[in-house]
Amino acid sequence: MELYLPVFAALFVTAYGCSAPGRDRPDAPLEEKIYKSQFVAYGTVLETFPDPVYSEKDVYAAAVSVKCTYKGGMLPINVTVVGAGKMPRCPEVNLHKMTDYILLLKSRTDKYYDVEFGPMTGDPQMIDEILIVCDLALVYTKGSDAEKNDDCPEIFEDVQTEENCLRYNPPQNNATFSTQSPNITTKDTVIKSYPDGEPEPEPEPDIKINDSDKSESKSMGNGKRTGQSAISDNGNGKELYSLSGFLLFTCTSVATFLL
C-alpha cells in the first residue's frame, strides 16, 4: 500500500494540475499572459483578509484600489481579488498591503476577481515592459485621482504599431483533413475479395438473328432510307413512277406553249 501512495499522488497532481488557471505557468512569456488575461489592472493593495470564495487554509483575499486598466476596459475603483496565497498545487501568490501591483485578473462575479497569472510589481520599468505588448488601451478608473496625479504611464502610439508591438500568436492546429469522399459501407453492400487477382471480364455472348428477324429488319429499314428508296419498297412503286412522269411531261408542255 505504501508503494502506491506516491504514484497516486503524482497522478493526482498531473491529472488536476494547479487549481487556479495560469498559476502553473509562472515563466510564460509576458505577451501570452496578457493575451490570456481578461483584465490588466494597475492598483494598490489596501488590505488583506480571509478569502470569501476559497476555503483553503493559506488562501486569502485582497482589497485593491484600481488606478487604471490596460486591457479589459474600466473596473470599479475598489475590487476584491481572491485566491491569493497558497492555492493547492500552485505557485504561491503574495500580495502585500500598501504596495502597487500589475494584476492579471479574470472576473468571477461583479464583485470578485480571480488572479489569472501571478502579479507583477508596479514599478515603472515593469509597466514599460507591458506597454510594448499589442492591443493595449489605457482606461482610467472612474473616481480615481490617478489621471490627475499622472499615476498611469501613457501608451505611445508609435509603440502600439504592428511593426513595433509584441504580439502573442496562439499555436495553430496542424490537423489535416481529407477532401475525398469517404467509402460508406451499408448493410446491402457486398464486398468481394480476389486472392488470385481480379478475374478477366467475361466476353459478351453472340446473339444469333433468325431469318424472320432479318426480313422484318429489312422491311422496317435502318432509319436512313428516305424518298424514292422508301417508296420503291412499296408494291405500288411502279404506278407512282408512271404518274410522276406523266405530270412532269404535262407541265413541260404547258410551259412551252405559253412561252
UniProtKB/TrEMBL annotation:
Signal peptide: 1-17
Segments of this protein annotated with the region Disordered: 168-235
Compositional bias ranges of the Basic and acidic residues kind: 205-217
Keyword Signal: yes
KW Signal (keyword) present: yes
Compositionally biased tracts (Polar residues): 170-188, 225-235
Keywords noted in UniProt: Signal
Protein name (record): Uncharacterized protein
Source species of the chain: Potamilus streckersoni
Lineage of the organism: Eukaryota, Metazoa, Spiralia, Lophotrochozoa, Mollusca
